[in-house]
Every structure is written in structure tokens, then in C-alpha cells.
Sequence to fold (258 residues):
Amino acid sequence: MTAAPDMPAGFELRSYDVLASTNDEAKRLAAEGAPEGTLVQATSQSMGHGRQGRRWESPAGNLYCSLILRPACSPGEAAHYAFIAALAIRDAIAPFLNADHELRLKWPNDLLVDGAKISGILLESVLRPGGGVEWLVIGLGVNIVSHPDIPDIRTTSVHAAGGAGISPRHVLAAFCAAFAVWRARQSQFGFAPVRRAWLAAAQDAGQPVRIRHGGEDMDGIFVDLDESGALVLELENGMRKRIMAGDVFPAQSQMAHS
Ligand code: BTN
Fold:
């Protein structure tokens, strides 16, 4: 077993055995003034949660982590961090997977291997009275040794895709290094390179999809990701609609959500 790697400069790790939720702990620390770069990691979570209040099963062996940022940006720009995080997770785990597996990014903030969910991202933020972002917490769940058995959702793990022997701490260190690179690109060139890279790796880009949100379905072609991070859907009548929230399925899929 190799020693746990240190985190790159600019990241300060706080590790716990068990937490209810690393996002909840990171939000508590952020509200108390914890600095940018604070990372909260737990071996397991008793009440891990995902988007739309979904439960995130969190047994030992996988990565559960939340990063505190204090970006000088608007709430709209804060949404870009989900795409930066997705690219950084992609870069962190891709080298460990067997080459015959396909790793893709799913709008708004999932990662899939051969169509099965391997990771999810949960962004939570608090705004200043003036409207800027006070702090932002980016929560990452990465299935490393195990993946949950959830009805109607295909899931997988780094181990199942060929990456045996890799620890949550190794994935976290690789994530931090890649996150710093993507963030530097974004601060130098704006959202364009992140958007381009994300779209090039996106699941179903250019394809017919169904968007499900609030019990409603909408069909169209997934034609773009816009400046705000919205999915651009081209409807049958040629009109383009910006989708701000929802679950995306390949048009023929009967799955409930993934
Ligand atoms: C999703 O796919 O809906 C997002 C899942 C995010 C799960 C991670 S695990 C670490 C952090 N703590 C939580 O309670 N949630 C996020």
C-alpha cells in the first residue's frame, strides 16, 4: 500500500471517519469563516445527499469530499464551478480506467462510464446581501470500490472499470491538481475553454434527448451548452430552449432518472 499523498498547495484537508454529510460540515465551516481551499473528507457518510434531495449512499471505500471556495463572482458564474469540477474528476479518474471504457460527462453534473453513473457533484452556495457569492461548497461523490444498487439507475465504480488498488485520497489529490489547472484556465480565458472541453466529453451532445423536470418531459436535440451552463435544446419546430434544471435521458430511454 503506498502512502497517502499530500494535497497540492492551496488545499487544506480536514479528514473525518464518519460525517452525516461532508457538504453539511463544509457549509458549517464556511459559515464560521473557513478559508478558500478547505477540503472536508469523510471515510463514510450517514446522511449523504445529492441533487433534488436524493440520498447518496456512502459506505467506506469511496470518495466523499466537499471543497470550500470564496470566488469573487456572480451567482451565475458560480454555476461554472460544477463544470470545472466535472472536468477535474474526469482528469483524476480517467488514467485509472481500462482503455476500453468510455468516460463521459452528463449534464448538469454527473460522470458516467459506459453510460453508468460513477460520480455526482452537488454545488451549494450562500450569497452576500449585495448579490455576490459569499462562499461556495462543491461536493463530490466518486464510486471507487463500490457502487449502489438503485432501481432504474445503472451505476459503476473505478474498480469495476479496471482501476483496482486506487484509494479515495489518491483520487482526491489528483482531483485537486486538475481542479487548479481548470480553474486557472477559466480565470485567464473565461468559461470558453471549460465549456468547449466539457461539451467535447458530454454524453448525448448532438443527440435526441428527453429532459424530465418537475414531472414534465420535453424532447429535442441537445445542441449546446450556453455561457450560463444551461443545456440548449432544439425543439421539433426549430425553436431553441435553455434548460436550467432537469434530468437528461437518451430519447428512447425509459429510465426514471440517473
Ligand atoms: C448527485 O449526483 O445528485 C450529487 C451527489 C453528491 C454527493 C456528494 S458525496 C460528498 C458530498 N456530501 C454530500 O452529502 N453530498 C456530496
Confidence is low (pLDDT under 50) at residues 254-258. The CA atoms of residues 104 and 200 lie 9 Å apart. The pocket of biotin is lined by residues 21-23, 45, 48-51, 54, 56, 64-66, 110, 120-122, 139-141 (CB under 6 Å). Helices lie at 22-31, 75-78, 80-93, 168-189, 192-200.
